[in-house]
Design brief:
Blueprint lengths: L8 H12 L18 H7 L7 H6 L13 H7 L38 H4 L7 H7 L3 H4 L13 H14 L2
Helix pairs in contact: 1-2, 4-8
């Protein structure tokens, strides 16, 4: 499931600039942004509420899971990096614990897995919001964890991964 976001004033001004320069569909997405038109600075100077995750990040705000609509199908692709250590089968632990019904579960609670003291004693419940934050930087979120994975830095990919974990937890 995907959702379209409303664009903030700065995003609309950028889109208008891109369109005026011949950009848009079929243009090189990796090309540098075109020079601003006279209308763009006025829109950029007006502080607007962060209406998209990109707006929030640009404004220096914290991205939250609720800022995104995760796509479970895309999240399955992101999960490919996790398959080395994790499976969804109940009672099957590998290098990492089983992720069977991970969403809503208490951290450090899978029987038969040797958790770190940090994980066992964290008191964390794996909600979508907590997973979104944790999966950005596991060692930063939970110092002392044994999880060596560096995290998923791309917020949309992380939201997609969380959506996939949610879908697997039903």
């Amino acid at each position: 499931m995907k959702r379209n976001f409303l664009m903030g004033a700065a995003a609309l001004a950028s889109l208008a600039t891109l369109s005026a320069c011949g950009g848009g569909a079929g243009s090189d997405a990796n090309a540098p942004a075109p020079a601003a038109t006279e209308a763009a600075p006025a829109a950029a100077e007006t502080p607007a509420a962060a209406e998209t995750p990109a707006d929030a990040a640009a404004a220096g705000g914290k991205l939250e899971y609720a800022s995104f609509t995760g796509d479970a199908a895309s999240g399955e692709k992101v999960f490919a990096a996790c398959r080395t250590c994790h499976v969804f089968d109940e009672g099957v632990n590998r290098v990492g614990p089983s992720l069977y019904k991970i969403v809503g579960r208490k951290s450090g609670s899978v029987p038969g897995f040797a958790y770190s003291d940090a994980n066992k004693g964290s008191g964390v419940t794996w909600t979508p919001d907590v997973l979104f934050e944790y999966l950005e930087d596991p060692k930063g979120f939970m110092p002392g964890t044994k999880m060596a994975f560096p995290g998923v830095k791309d917020a949309q990919k992380r939201a997609d991964l969380v959506a996939y974990l949610e879908a697997q937890s039903k």
